[in-house]
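User: My collaborator sent over this chain with a note saying "see what the structure looks like." That's all I know about it. Can you take a look?
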Amino acid sequence: MLLDKFKDECGIFGIKPHPEAANMAYLGLYALQHRGQEAAGVVSESDGVLTCSKGQGLVSDVFTREKLQRLRGDSAIGHVRYSTAGSNRIENAQPILITCQHGQIAVAHNGNLVNAMEMRRKLEKIGSIFNTDSDSEVLLHLIAKSKQETLEDAIIEALNQVEGAYSCVFHTKDKLIAVRDPRGFRPLMLGTLGESTVFASETCAFDLLDAQFQRELEPGEMVVVNRRGMRRSMKPFEEKPIRQCIFEHIYFARPDGFMFGEHTQRYREQLGAKLAEENPLEADYVIPVPDSGVSAALGYARASGIPFAFGLIRNHYVGRTFIEPKQSIRHFGVKIKLNPVRHLFEGKRVVLVDDSLVRGTTSRKIVKMVRNCGATEVHMRISAPPTTHPCYYGIDTPTRGELIASSHSIDEIRKYIEADSLEYISIQGMLDCLNNSSPESYCKACFTGDYVIPFPHQAGASV
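Assistant: Without extra context I'll predict from the sequence alone. Here is the result:
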């Protein structure tokens, strides 16, 4: 992943009952790895006892065969993490497992609670001790102090005290509980694998397991799976305007999935086609910025009639590098991840298509790299509108001051990245590409600044 990109949020998974629950959770998280690469964890249940194993790094690095063998039982939840709230340290890895008056309970959470710091201060004043700086732990403290008789009612009471984005799976000694916030910011899918119920952030986790996708959890829905595998659904929260994250479609979700009623790959190709329609030009090649720009570039090429070519080749085996040569290597950070196919650029007019432009630093380096290969014209096209505001609902975005579009015109950005032209898809064009869902049901705050939930003093935000 290039540095000048939004960070993926988190991915969650749950399964019950299944004789190889921990192994299924491992594979499910493997499919969701794109949603978080900093930490991974699994909690399983055997004979009424929950066991947790987690660590920093990729799923395949965290879990050895021996670790998985120790996670016995027929139910499990899992989590892959990028730190949208809370620093990157092992204590913040999820699932978080506690023991309280309601027994053992673990949670895996995707999203961000905008009033978490306020709630944390209140809890600390009455004696709560926190082991992490993750907003997800606030939920567990609220559950632990609840005087409700049942754990389900305690979870409902706790969730009614927080504001923001949450798609969660809770694990207790005898139940698996999945819940999605009333606005539906973050995705949560329900599937079946034989007699097992499966929950996952995206349908790609089901595909790997040969599980059958059944439906998305509705905003504000809670699904409870008991020890026998029986499911029941309820909607215990006040109904609120639905605000699903449009950036899931544009960038975060894997293109081979289905989410919010839309096929992701088809939507991204339509974004590219609309981008070509709104901003026509003459060129010799359409070149995607891999990997996130590929789908939109395919749509752009098809709509414009300009040939598509893989002119930038990504090295998929590069993680973070801590060594940078002292001698000058131009655009080192980009070149270690992308390499140009030089003959495609020599003497050619090219259109570079990407899904977003955040700070502009990476786009600037790519444009220079392409020019150095002999391109006569370099045009940049972005399949999302200008990102002018940070997200407080589960995406790790820069501060507003670091978002180049918040303080610069499109022409100023074009001059900065040194492109011959720069165009973004319009907000209306982005919404016009939706096939099966209502434009009003999406959160577009990162493009408009219209936050459906105000963030208290912007304190503790993922900025």
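A starting point for your reply to your collaborator: The longest helix spans residues 264-278.
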